[in-house]
Amino acid sequence: MAPVRTAGAIATLLSVAIVSYFLCKTTQQKSSGKKKLQRRRTGLVAAIGSTPLIRINSLSDATGCEILGKAEFLNPGGSVKDRVAVKIIEEALESGALAEGGVVTEGSAGSTAISLATVAPAYGCRCHVVIPDDAALEKAQILEALGATVERVRPVSITHRDHFVNIARRRALEASEITSTTRKESQIDANDSSQINGHSISEEKQNMQFSSECKGGFFADQFENLANFRSHYEGTGPEIWEQTGGKLDAFIAAAGTGGTVAGVSQYLKDKNSNIKCFLIDPPGSGLYNKVTRGVMYTREEAEGRRLKNPFDTITEGIGINRLTENFKMAKLDGAFRGTDMEAVEMSRYLLKNDGLFIGSSSAMNCVGAVRVAKALGPGHTIVTILCDSGMRHLSKFHNDKYLSEHGLTPSATGLEFLRPS
User: Mind listing the pLDDT tens digit for each residue in 376-399?
Assistant: First the structure.
């Protein structure tokens, strides 16, 4: 009987060995994938993230709370969108949706486009940006200096086929079509449309042409691509948690795509459900009402008073009248409204008292931080995002003549400009 027991033991050992081999093989494959990602994050892209969390002294002293700003303007590309650009490109390369030598297209009011143009060359890719022509001029100039192809178009509703986001989607399709034709892999049939990112090529040919050397196109789709959310859930949120030692009471930020407020709020809530997370919403946006009343609605849309451009506000890149896939991931306890005048006044107040030269969305976030501080009372720790600096807002938000023409000349000496919430 002993030989039988020995044979059984040997069989068991062999089974364990085989299972261990395949488990080890799988682990090695996963590990090699991670190493590949780590090797790629060298040079410029390795410097993205791990931004400092700074105390905003003037606001903290005025409210009795610790108001902290995540200094995202210190990223290499100058904004919080650097995180998003890296995540979108890396996931696209890993999935095969984007190839080295391909073109990344995006419709953006500025910051995401600048970040994509900054990091794309590090991955061997190029960038094509479609931007509304009412965006600050210096943003287009920066994009061109970075080597991106810039296409400026008139602002129209997102439902219009020529909205800058919809045009950017078509440009990616055109780049892929040219690649397909050049390689003679397939002939596009009028009755059989190719697809990219789940969208079909329109029957109508576009005028924009890409080089025959182009290795296809990929539409970044920052509004709906959940890589946006993941960049903040995996990066910004954990950094805030670590930098505060988990000792924070509230987080607040505005939303454009919704990726930042969604990723950070969900991460913080997962760590501690008692942390309060809020939205600050600018004029012309329906998100405030979505959060507080469950209905996407804004006063500018009532009684035929809808603005010609739903985002017709001094605060660029934030505020929206639709629910994005990224924003749907947010875990929010409430929302506050902010005004253009408050954002302008806040930017000047922080420049004078703290030496912080920030952009419009950062200023609105700080308006929100004070709103939360007043709502919670003294003794609380509140975190917000300093998205970008004022350097790419010189022609509008930091232009005295432009502000005067729009009745937004700042005059406050303190925080008296903040209206009751």
Answer: 999 999 999 999 999 989 989 999
Going edge to edge, which strands form the sheet with 149-153?
149-153, 126-132, 103-107, 217-219
pLDDT single digits (tens) 281-327: 999 899 999 999 999 877 655 544 444 444 468 898 899 999 999 99
Q: What share of the chain is helix, strand, coil (3-state, %, to 5)?
A: 45, 15, 40
Write down the residue that tokens 């022509």 correspond to. Answer: 133
Q: Which residues, 6+ apart, have CB-to-CB distance to 419 below 8 Å?
A: 339, 342
Closest CA to 418 of 33, 106, 150, 58: 58
Nearest CA to 86 out of 52, 130, 47, 53 is that of 47
Q: What is the pLDDT of residue 156?
A: 87
Q: Exposed e or buried b for every residue in 220-239, given b needs 16+ CB within 10 A?
A: bbbbbbbbbbbbbbbbbbbb
Q: Quick one: CA torsion of 365, 370, 373, 375, rounded to 10 degrees?
A: -100
DSSP E strands in 259-380: the ranges are: 276-281, 334-337
Quick one: tokens of 183?
A: 């390689």
DSSP 73: G
**Mean pLDDT in runs of 10 for the chain (421 residues)?**
47 46 43 43 94 98 98 97 98 96 90 95 95 84 93 89 93 84 50 50 44 81 97 98 98 97 98 98 94 83 47 82 96 97 98 98 98 98 97 92 95 92 67
21: left (phi over 0), alpha (psi -120 to 50) or beta: alpha
Look-up: residue for tokens 């930020």? Answer: 253
- What value does the CA radius of gyration of the chain take, rounded to a whole number of Å? 24
- Chain position carrying tokens 């002293």: 61
First to last CA, the chain: 85
Rounded to whole angstroms, how far apart are CA atoms 76 and 81? Answer: 10
Q: Which residue type occupies 324? A: T
The pTM of this model reads 0.82
Name the residue type at position 230. Answer: R
